């Protein structure tokens, strides 16, 4: 029969089938949604009834004692924290990068804790004078107890690459 129908009639028939397919698909999805809602309704009802029946409980004496102990401990930590040296490696690295002159690019940072701890800064410089300028800036910073740069890096034999070892307490 489709061979006999003109093109306009074929499009009209296919449009009708498409509309029926969309209608049936929508009805199936609505039926699935209704079934899901009915399946979840008992659970929702139980939770809603349980929520209404639970009365807010009063804080027990033990809970109040715990809160008092926590507040006391926090007060002690606040009072004693200035006495403890808390310079971290991150703060020291930030300080080392703050005094870095123009022409210095730090590409790798390694920190190891100890007494004293060491931080190794590796990178490259556009000119050799920038490395010695960076070394002197770090030496004049009171945060670092020792600053060392290999002689080859200061002499320029490493194609502008350098490594600086910093010692500090962290």
Instruction: Give the strand order, joined by hyphens, for the main sheet.
Output: 1-2-4-3
- Quaternary status: single chain
Terminal Cα span: 90 Å
CATH topology of the largest domain: Gyrase A, domain 2
| Binned strand content | 15-25%
Question: Which residues sit in consecutive blocks of at least 5 with pLDDT less than 50?
Answer: none
Helix count from the secondary structure assignment: 5
Helix content percent band: 55-70%
CATH superfamily of the largest domain: General secretion pathway protein M, EpsM
How many strand segments? 4
Shape: flat
| Helix/strand order | HHHEEHEHE
The CATH class of the largest domain, by name, is Alpha Beta
The CATH architecture of the largest domain can be named as 2-Layer Sandwich
Sheet with most strands: 4 strands, antiparallel
Q: Which class of secondary structure composition applies to the elements?
A: alpha+beta
As for the number of domains, it is: 2
* Average pLDDT over all residues: 85
Could you tell me the radius of gyration in angstroms? 37 Å
Account of the protein in words:
This protein is α+β, with helices and mostly antiparallel strands and 170 residues long. It has 2 domains: 1-56; 89-168, General secretion pathway protein M, EpsM (Gyrase A, domain 2), CATH 3.30.1360.100. Helix content is 55%, strand content 17%. It has helices at residues 7-53, 61-80, 89-98, 128-139, 151-155, and strands at residues 104-112, 117-125, 146-148, 161-168. The protein has a 4-stranded antiparallel sheet with strand order 1-2-4-3, with helices on one face. 10% of the residues are buried. The mean pLDDT is 85.
């Amino acid at each position: 029969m489709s061979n006999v129908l003109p093109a306009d009639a074929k499009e009209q028939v296919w449009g009708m089938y498409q509309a029926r397919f969309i209608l049936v698909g929508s009805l199936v999805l609505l039926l699935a949604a209704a079934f899901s809602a009915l399946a979840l309704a008992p659970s929702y009802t139980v939770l809603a009834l349980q929520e209404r029946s639970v009365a807010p409980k009063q804080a027990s004496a033990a809970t109040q004692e715990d809160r008092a102990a926590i507040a006391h401990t926090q007060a002690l930590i606040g009072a004693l924290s200035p006495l403890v040296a808390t310079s971290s490696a991150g703060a020291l690295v930030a300080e080392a990068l703050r005094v870095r002159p123009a022409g210095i690019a730090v590409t790798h940072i390694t920190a190891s804790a100890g007494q004293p701890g060491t931080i190794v800064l590796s990178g490259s410089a556009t000119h050799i004078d920038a490395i010695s300028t960076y070394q002197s800036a770090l030496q004049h910073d009171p945060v670092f107890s020792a600053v060392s740069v290999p002689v080859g890096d200061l002499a320029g034999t490493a194609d502008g690459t350098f490594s600086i070892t910093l010692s500090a307490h962290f």
